[in-house]
Amino acid sequence: MADDSLYARLGGYDAIAAVADSLLARLTADARLGRFWANRGDDGVRREKQFLIDFLCHNAGGPLLYTGRDMATSHRGMGIDEADWAAFRGHLEATLAEFSVPDRETGDVLAFIDGTRADIVER
Q1: Hey, what CATH topology would domain 6-120 get?
Q2: How many CA atoms are closer than 13 Å to the CA of 54, on its beta-carbon side?
Q3: How is the chain split into domains, by residue range?
Q4: d(CA 69, CA 73)
Q5: CB distance 81 to 13 below 8 Å
Q6: pTM for this one?
Q7: Contact 71, 119 (CB under 8 A)
Q8: What is the pLDDT of residues 25-65, one digit of tens each?
């Protein structure tokens, strides 16, 4: 039986890592969202990117273990609002389109990401 997990349908680790790399570049360059990375060192950004990759792979049904903190703890105190979330989600959609992720997989990714919104948006 073939692996029908979202992880497999997205192309596995390398494909998800490429999407995460492009997404993080978009987020850090965004005039609104860049403030969240403005004072982070290169090592901290690399570590955060690996957590993002692990989180995406794990939640897509892949064989990786996400060892980062839960979303509420990770984002508490950052002051993320609805406009920040909308900007992030726009970048995520654009990144998925850039990689020609099919509609079914795009919907599945957006569904599990949207499931984190309540733990991330503070105001």
Answers
A1: Globin-like (1.10.490)
A2: 13
A3: 6-120
A4: 6
A5: no
A6: 0.91
A7: yes
A8: 999 999 999 999 888 899 988 999 999 999 999 999 999 89
